[in-house]
Amino acid sequence: DTEVTQTPKHLVMGMTNKKSLKCEQHMGHRAMYWYKQKAKKPPELMFVYSYEKLSINESVPSRFSPECPNSSLLNLHLHALQPEDSALYLCASSQDGGEAFFGQGTRLTVV
Amino acid sequence: QKEVEQNSGPLSVPEGAIASLNCTYSDRGSQSFFWYRQYSGKSPELIMFIYSNGDKEDGRFTAQLNKASQYVSLLIRDSQPSDSATYLCAVNGLTGGGNKLTFGTGTQLKVEL
Based on C-alpha coordinates, what's the Rg of chain B? Predict the structure, then answer.
């Protein structure tokens, strides 16, 4: 089973809202990732958690707040987003340095 | 210099031909290399990975790695219209304990009937 599950699939939120994106994997992977992808661009790394600790933050604005409650779950908390934050948000997981598998993504629209 | 570079294309090949996709990377300490296929509006799908110099074959796909030249490629034999997609090269560097997976800009492949 190489499944990474993301919820919700679509999200529309206002600039004053607070929302959360969720990601779950049951492959025993110890690295989990958040990527942001704009149309016709490659995925852009945001955060990496390794063994439930934040190991990489690619200078992401504080309106994005990641959380890793346990080894299977990864959340991305959103607050006071801007319209330019509208994108496809992708979660992925891998073993250390190994193959990363992606979820289906959450298509976020900020209005 | 970008960390991972690909020709954005589009690369057009006739059905049944071999499609050759190329990628170069800048971090000489990179350990693992991946090819993802992404259809429009969908998430990336892993199709090949390679860790050692040389060739690795899986069905119609062959990945080639040359660490001395910092070059990785993907060959798709007997190309089919369903192979039309964007192909993303991804490289895992040493940063973050070997978990910094960086993508190239992707090459759009079009397989024509």
Answer: 14
